[in-house]
Amino acid sequence: MLSILQGTPFWVYLIFILLIKRGISASKENTISIKRVFIAPVVLFILSLHKINSPYLFSIFFICGLVIGYLIYQKMIISFNKDTKKITMPGSIIPLILMVGVFAKSYYIGYLTATSPTMLHTPHIMILIDIVSGIFSGVFIGRGIIIFIKSFYPKKATVNK
Fold this sequence. Notes:
This protein is an alpha+beta fold. Helix content is about 70%, strand content about 10%. The protein is built from seven helices and four strands; from the N terminus they run H-H-E-H-H-H-E-E-H-H-E. Strands 1-3-2-4 form a four-stranded mixed beta sheet.
C-alpha cells in the first residue's frame, strides 16, 4: 500500500489538495460567476470522453447521472445578481464527494495503467470505467444545467438587481 503512494507523482498530490480545497469551499455558501459553475463539468466531461470504452453504456449512465444531478439540485435555492453576473449558492458537501470520487476513479485508472495495463482491457474494468464516468459527468452537468436554468429563468431563484 505504501509503495503505491510512494510511486505517485507529486503533481497528483497537488491536484488532490486543490480538489479538497475546492470541495470544502463549496460546502459553504459562496458567490461565484456563472462561468465558473461550468468549468468543472466541462473539464470532467472532456476527460471522461477520453477514456470511454462503450459510447452506448457511457450515454446510458450519463443520462442516469443527469437525472441524479437534477434530483439532487432541483430544490437548491440560488440568488443571481444580474449586474455582476454572479450567483450565490448554498453550501453542499456533494461537490466534495463527487470530486473525490472522480479523483479516485482517475487515480485507479492511472494505477492500473502503471502496474498492469492489460487489466484496463478486461470487460469488468471497461464497464466500470464507463459507468462511473457517465454518472459523475452526468451529475456535474446536471448541476450546471439546474444552476443555469435557475439563474436565467428564475422561477424559484431570487434575482437581485
